[in-house]
Each structure stands twice: as structure tokens, then as C-alpha cells.
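Predict structure. Chain length: 188.
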Amino acid sequence: MPVNGKGTLFYMMGPSGAGKDALLRFARRHIDGRNGIAFSHRYITRPADYGGENHVELSEGEFAERKAFGCFFMDWAAHGFKYAIGIEVNIWLSKGLSVVVSGSREYFPQALGIYPRVRGILVTANLKTLRKRLAMRGREDGAAILERSIRTVEPSGNKRDIFVLENNGPLEEAGEKLVMYLLAHASR
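Prediction complete.
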């Protein structure tokens, strides 16, 4: 069911190691609560100190309970964890805020069906960069790094709704492009 709102939903996605979390931190720091742009957190069944993502840690039971009560507008499972984005995003959008979420490439079509004002942001990096970043974060062994780095899922949907952001160089390069994109396309 479509959600009516005045705000724009920015749906960030991309492969593990592309640098989504670092880019989100960069953009959050540079936008700093201005220009009507809010950054959503995710609910995840993994420890809060696991990786660099700003997320809310939930146990399997807490996750199931919140899902049963309709507290998520979108949820999925990947890499042994459950992920969700809360329905509070709908309230923010209805108030006119533009909201940035980190989602799954596989569920982008679902977001397109729910939100009339959605813009996809596909963060990419070359294979060498992905493998290096995955190894540096220390979460996976060599086999898991290989599996994650070669997994390709192209988000479906209208390609005009997807901004491709290459993140192979210094964080500032892609980070500034992301900030400029968000500021240029946020609801006013």
C-alpha cells in the first residue's frame, strides 16, 4: 500500500564493502540536521558494536515481536542476521522530512511500490576495493569475503530512479557527491 508523504525517501544500497556506512556517517556529519534531511537507523539482530553501522540491536525475540506488531515498514534476512527499517520513517516523511535509509538491493522494488517519492542510491566499488574493505573490517573469513565480494544483485526498478555512486577512492570524494545529491533532491 503506497504511503503518502511530502518527503523524499533516499534508499541507499550496495554490496558489502562498498562503503555505505562510512558514506552515511560522512553525509550525516556534513548535513548535521539541516535542510530537512533525517538519517534512519536500522534494527538488526547483531551486536551494536559489530561493525561501524549506527543500528539498534535486537534479539531474535524482540525482532519477531516488533515485526508481529507491525513496527517495521520493511524487513529482510541476510548473512545470518535479520534487518528492518521502522515505521517511524513514515511519520518523518509525512511531516515533510526527506529520509535516508540503508536498505537491501533485493528490496528496492518494494520501496518503489510503497513510496511515491523514492530515489535509489547504489553505492559501488571495484572488486579489489570490496575485498580489501571486507578483509579490513575483520567480520568474515577468506571464503566469506570471496562469497560476499562476488555476489551481485542488481536492483530492479526504473534506472532513472537510481543514482550510482562509485566509492573506490578517498571517502571525501564519494562523500561530497552524496551530500550534493541529497541536498539537490531533498523535498522542499
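Summary: Strands lie at 9-13, 37-39, 42-44, 55-57, 72-78, 81-86, 98-102, 118-124, 162-166.
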